[in-house]
Amino acid sequence: MTDEVLSQSEIDSLLSALSTGEMDAEDLKVEESKGKIRVYDFKRALRFSKDQIRSLSRIHENFARLLTTYFSAQLRTYVNISVASVDQLPYEEFIRSIPAMTILNIFSVPPLDGRILLETNPNIAYAMLDRVLGGRGSSVNKVDNLTEIETTIMSQLFENSLENYQEAWGSIVEIEPLLEELEVNPQFLQMVSPNETVVVVTLNTSIGEASGMINICIPHVVLEPIIPKLSVHYWMQNQQTKESKPEEYAALSETVRTAQVDVRAILGESNMSIEEFLKLNADDVIRLDQLVDEPIKLTIDEEEKFYIQPGKRKNKLAVQVLEEYQGGR
């Protein structure tokens, strides 16, 4: 199979030819089985390696899981989102492959340049809207007639979901996604030149009984500064860094061991008035609230940590730790 994307009119023409008998399905199978010569257009050269595409797939698989949890909580219904495909193609082909009227969320991702497009199939968008407004999640496709309230609700719903996108990219780059606008007609949207290579991540989405696609279109200009980080070598470096952390923890633990702390054994406490305190004389006895046969408390930096008992070791006063203090006895 080739990577060519058919427009809706081309698909309709093909189905019409099959139904009228102008074209035979068996002929198509025979033609498909024969060897084909594919013309390679150097103006549309692939700009991402398979390795980098796999890295983008991993990132968006994580995003799909986070998005599933987010929408499940927001819509209070069954939601399932998974990555269907990750492809690179010219921007013009992507625009021709999506519906003429759809939900387009355009957001920037500083500090990276450019903008990312999140296209949501109307079936999914209206199922979300219906759930937010208290419905059962039914879908009514009337994208060309969005009210101001519907536009605001959808914008807020997708804007809040961008926190998950930020988290999904956290292992590669720290971004701050910001929703800029919501559009319904892709023909009015020109983010990059028609021949610019974009990565299109397609997410299979089910919300209740409604199902459809969410497409994320990422122009090459956005990913260009971080392309080296999308390689296996970078992921392996990160893994090695994680594996070396135990040594860092060991060094940190050794530093903590030598830290000075204030340790006190509280033999007991007693309350008295100022008058009684001023009248104290030598050989007076102060009665404490601690019984002789009960363990006393050991504090570390004024926080109670252990039960102990006093004694001597090598003719020096010492305490023996009995058990950890659990709060109350």
UniProtKB/TrEMBL annotation:
Residues 255-323 form the Flagellar motor switch protein FliN-like C-terminal domain. Keywords: Bacterial flagellum, Cell membrane, Cell projection, Chemotaxis, Cilium, Flagellar rotation, Flagellum, Membrane. Coiled coil: none annotated. It is found in: Bacterial flagellum basal body; Cell membrane. It is a peripheral membrane protein. It holds the Pfam family FliMN_C. It comes from the Bacteria. Gene3D superfamilies: CheC-like, SpoA-like. SUPFAM superfamilies: CheC-like, Surface presentation of antigens (SPOA). The keyword Membrane applies. Belongs to the FliM family. This is Flagellar motor switch protein FliM. It comes from Halobacillus shinanisalinarum.
